[in-house]
Amino acid sequence: xxxxxxxxxxxxxxxxxxxxxxxxxxxxxxxxxxxxxxxxxxxxxxxxxxxxxxxxxxxxxxxxxxxxxxxxxxxxxxxxxxxxxxxxxxxxxxxxxxxxxxxxxxxxxxxxxxxxxxxxxxxxxxxxxxxxxxxxxxxxxxxxxxxxxxxxxxxxxxxxxxxxxxxxxxxxxxxxxxxxxxxxxxxxxxxxxxxxxxxxxxxxxxxxxxxxxxxxxxxxxxxxxxxxxxxxxxxxxxxxxxxxxxxxxxxxxxxxxxxxxxxxxxxxxxxxxxxxxxxxxxxxxxxxxxxxxxxxxxxxxxxxxxxxxxxxxxxxxxxxxxxxxxxxxxxxxxxxxxxxxxxxxxxxxxxxxxxxxxxxxxxxxxxxxxxxxxxxxxxxxxxxxxxxxxxxxxxxxxxxxxxxxxxxxxxxxxxxxxxxxxxxxxxxxxxxxxxxxxxxxxxxxxxxxxxxxxxxxxxxxxxxxxxxxxxxxxxxxxxxxxxxxxxxxxxxxxxxxxx
Amino acid sequence: xxxxxxxxxxxxxxxxxxxxxxxxxxxxxxxxxxxxxxxxxxxxxxxxxxxxxxxxxxxxxxxxxxxxxxxxxxxxxxxxxxxxxxxxxxxxxxxxxxxxxxxxxxxxxx
Lengths: 499, 110
Known about the structure:
Largest sheet of chain A: 4 strands, parallel
Radius of gyration of chain B: 13 Å
Structural class of chain B: mainly alpha
Number of helices of chain B: 5
Shape of chain A: globular
Oligomer: heterodimer
Distance between the termini of chain A: 51 Å
Distance between the termini of chain B: 24 Å
Radius of gyration of chain A: 23 Å
CATH class of chain B: Mainly Alpha
Helix content of chain B: 40-55%
Shape of chain B: globular
CATH architecture of chain B: Orthogonal Bundle
Helix content of chain A: 40-55%
Largest interface: A-B, 42 and 29 residues
CATH topology of chain B: Arc Repressor Mutant, subunit A
Strand content of chain A: under 5%
Largest sheet of chain B: 2 strands, antiparallel
Structural class of chain A: mainly alpha
CATH superfamily of chain B: DsrC protein, C-terminal domain
């Protein structure tokens, strides 16, 4: 983009590194504020309300009553410092406000002032602070420098979840009229059209027909990409980026080939053409529920027996952890299958049963590593076993590729680093933050590139794929390095020989 | 933000996308391209024109694959790749080319 200062990537260090502190380094970073047109369709005030301070405190009170966890997190921090060097945004920027504890304190100080006896009586002496305009601006800036990845919570001895604090702060800001354009514009599109992109049914149909042609041309097989087919066995819910972007679409082709070869009937829905649920990013239960209910309606309308989710990180957290309470009960689906099921569980099952066969040679030109997506890694499983969210993707990658290497253990599994674009931050005006936030992940990648000749980074989330494609070139890596897990499956799957 | 073209002021959002897509003209496209530091060649115009055609039919920009396929038909198979489109529009064909074509920015996880 022409406008704005030139964005430069920080110099990569050897792991692990803790940067020198650079106070205020990211104080000016903030996303565009939502306009009236983005706020009002969600029922939020169109602009900052005149009595915003009183309303914000009242909203905080409401949230404290609703979410016991929020009060515990605000009360319990002992400032031990375990989280300080765990956030990728602190590691990438050096701004001490990006230490999770300091980010939490932006809200905690206000909580103390209004909701604790000590804070009411002793004020600043016990770290209590009023919600001034300056503080509100800090909220807007730094609660949009948290990708809600929850890595810090893994290291916190009390398990304080900064993501939840971040979500609460964003919910309060929405309620007083200062929302984030990126997330709120997208949520309104989902309500209106059915997906984050705003891809209407005819365009989706045209795109899918084009993919059928492409696959036919490349493989000679009539692989279908069914849309709105009533009576299909499986409803596939996948991020709309899978229809639109690279390398996402190669993952979608992979899913279609898996369904085709396994002989399992499936359909996409134009009504629920989005797996992602940005309601979570802005902390809004109501928005999250409204989005999730589209999936329920699509499943009922199409009379499917199962719901399967494609590669998407936070979508899978919402699906795995909340779908049943948001939009259940799903007693109309086949009880023999998990509701919902992850595409990786399905594919891995087919590989193990022999329903599909993979030919590793198809990926012989690659040395592959994998990026665990934060929401999948730290909030879900992919099957019944603990750790299946790590085992299943690796099983699939090892079945599809002859050479697989894991990155440094401090950066994988539940310790994985965020890609730098999660939590509603995947927007162009935050590119500087995104480039810097990717630093720890890229350091780990660089290590395996240099030690093991890794050529490709497999990702399992639409945001991760878009973020890496965008930021890796700033570090001197080619965007073509980024691949979808099911893209590698799609390359390797033996077509035509039904077993 | 705003662009000046043919003596008229054309309003944009914070990122330089047109507020009203009906205010687009080739002159406006030229101004946006200048601000994006892109020298428009016939190949750039092929992309921009295809985006506009597709948009007028589907009310959305085409998926990257739809675009690469159309460009490969028009300009030859060797140019029908995401890589080539990035050479033309370094900030990414979806966003930068849409901006020049006067279309809304593609939103979501892209």
